[in-house]
Amino acid sequence: MKYLFFFITIILLFNTSCRLDNFLYNPTEATEYKLEDFDDNPHFTLDSTYAIDTALIRLMTLESGPTDDRETIYAVYVGDIDSIAHDTVILYCHGNAGNMDYYWQRVKLLANAGGKNRFGVMFMDYRGFGRSTGKPTEAGMYYDVDACMKWLKSNGLTDDRLIMQGFSLGCAPSTELTANPRTLQPSKLILEAPFASFDYMVQDIAKLSLMGSFYTNLEVDNAEEIKKIEEPFMWMHGVADSYVGIQHGELVAMNYQGSHKVERRIVGADHSLVPSTMGFDLFMELIVDFITGKI
Amino acid sequence: MKYLCILLLTLYLLGTSACNSTRIVKPLAKKQIAVGLDFGGPIIDFQSLKIPVPFTSVTTAYGVDSTLTVFGSVYITSAIFGTIQWDMGVLKEVLKPQKGYIPGISLSASTQMMVDVFEGNFRMYPVIDANFYWKYLKKQEHYFYFNFGSWFDFWQKAHNQPNTKMYYPSFSLGHTFENKKMRYTLEAKYIDPASSNLGTPVHFNGSGGQGSWGAYISIYRKF
User: Fold this and answer.
1) To bridge B176 with a disulfide, which of A88, A129, B154, B185 should be the other Cys (CB 3.0-4.6 Å)?
2) What is the ipTM of this complex?
């Protein structure tokens, strides 16, 4: 009996300490942001014609989350802040690795879509990424994106001019906060290389029908949350995605039940290479056409 | 007796769900107990290394008679992540090793079960193994073996996706060094060669983007 008790105690001790939740996040801390001067771009670097006037790049800190889970996060707004009251703004949620420096090239593409600074673009480092304080959590990620929405709203942004865009992990807060709006209700949703859910991810890896709860407490479920969204939706995914297979995005797109869906399967594109495989001009044109309602 | 064993195996397979693993290839002696540690898993890319997933389990086996062994395992790695995983099985030797090249043959049926302590989700998978083993030295107990394993998955997939693949085969080659008290085994396995291993954050090492190689070691003490 004492051995059984000992065994159960050991199991419970283990159970309170280890989950795979943290493996979702792969942040890089930073002492400063380099943005244009960052020379470790992992995927592609744009030429000088995409450069953004430094006067239109605003680095800021925001307080994020309730008092018992509050952190200071860093965010960047690209564009004329005075124009937020009448501009269309893309709120961009980055992937699970690095920090804002690693995604600056992608943000520049958005800031150049349809002409230089035609759309305002905001992105942020989730807690634990870059200079943002704290540790990454699923709930914290949603607080952090919502903190940006609060800042945008305080500067005059309204629901109808907010475009939510997510890449990879960033598809989770993008989908969650479009499906279950907090401060603002995004008017359109763009997902690039989303994963369906952790159950789906686990089964994709293990092949067996294992449950996500065997490994994590994460509740990210883009494939279910997308069902609540009626706003126009665009999905892009590399057919050759070796990290989040295209079947994830296929399921998310299939589950969308709204009336306006644009799907783009990019032949030959790996996980992080949709823009460069499509061609930057084509990628930007696609973004503009979707936002303006041309497609 | 032969038919009783087949019946037991079948009932176990159909009733509590079934079958095995390669932890026990050859039956223990009657009333013999073995306790051991198994370590290893599919080989994945980890940073710049290729390592076996460090699955670890503790197994106990008991020889009901000289041809029938029952065994059970608990999985330490799963417990660390909050999932209680265990299996139970029975192995029957159907042919003793013969002179020459004719191997001993055993069949086993086991059930892999797991439940997480957070949401109580449960899964159970029947496993069936066929083992062929060659004892190649007259005065030694060492043997090498080939295993053909079969996992079955009858559960619904996530998001009500159809379960289009219910059968997962594996093939193993291993060698066991055995004396009166101890048993040491090295095993190489090829897991699920018919499934693509691409398009996931975990990069398995299989041939042509299919399945995964695995590597395992085990150490058992016999009583």
Assistant:
1) B185
2) 0.80
